Amino acid sequence: MKNTKKKLKAKNFRYLSKKIVNNPMIYIHDFFRHQTDIINWKNDINLFVTSGAYPAMSSGGYPENGYNCHQMIKQIEVAYVIFKQCGLAKHEDPLKLFETRNDYFNYSYGIDFTYNGKRNPNDLIRKFFSYQSLKKWYKTMDDLMEQLTLKRSLDNDQFGDRIIAIREFLIRLAHALYYIYEDEGITLPIPSYANIKSTIAQ
Q1: Angle CA(185)–CA(188)–CA(193) in degrees, nearest 5?
Q2: CA atoms of 138 and 32, how far apart (whole Å)
Q3: What contacts 83, CB < 8 A, 6 or more positions away?
Q4: How many CB atoms lie within 10 A of CB 85?
Q5: Do residues 145 and 130 lie in contact, with contact meaning Cβ atoms separated by under 8 Å?
Q6: Where are the alpha helices (DSSP H) in 23-120?
Q7: What is the pTM of this model?
Q8: Taking residues 8-27, what's their average pLDDT?
Q9: Which of the residues 51, 116, 136, 174 could staple to 132 if both were Cys, CB 3.0 to 4.6 A apart?
């Protein structure tokens, strides 16, 4: 059977270079090693979404707003590359945030995002793109940035209750990439009968 799977290209994204599309770890390493840490980044995301959703709380034209929006979109794109290249399946119920009671306690008391008790960036990325497509995430980020910049509401019900899920998913995505950074890559489950051969030149 002919493989008709479309290859991802840099021109399909706003901010990714060909090098990052080929190896998302380049961006992930640079961001968490040289730009910021997960705690500060989580706070930045929370403030950005809150201010964008409620313009009266906006900090206006601070350059940090543009930087943070740029990085969030870039991380969404990096996660999309991982989602596609790793062949991750969509989740039937992306709004089901916890699989087990243990996952709930890990989140409540340790601020750790787990799946069946273990950190699982795969699950976080799957749910992110099951909730919205890449195209819709672009639209969401553009709308947040526009409202934050103009300091006025474009629509009295621009996001509604969805803003809670949007903020949660953006923070969870940041953690997914941070877990990948800490683990030096992403682990994919494979069937016990699979035969894995390295393509790295000896």
Answers
A1: 140
A2: 23
A3: 125, 126, 128, 129
A4: 15
A5: no
A6: 25-30, 38-53, 63-85, 101-110
A7: 0.87
A8: 93
A9: 136
Tokens of 108: 């409540």
pLDDT, tens digit, 9 for 90 and up, residues 58-89: 666 667 888 999 999 999 999 999 999 999 99
Q: Is 112 helix (H, G, I), strand (E, B) or coil?
A: coil
Contact 127, 139 (CB under 8 A): no
**Residue 200 — very low, low, confident or very high, per pLDDT cuts 50/70/90?**
very low
The residue assigned the tokens 């950074």 is 181
How many other β-carbons are positioned within 10 Å of the β-carbon of residue 152? 10
Q: Does the pLDDT at position 188 exceed 80?
A: no
| Whole-angstrom distance, CA of residue 38 vs CA of residue 35 | 10
- Cα distance between residue 138 and residue 129, in whole Å: 12
Whats the size of the chain, residue-wise?
202
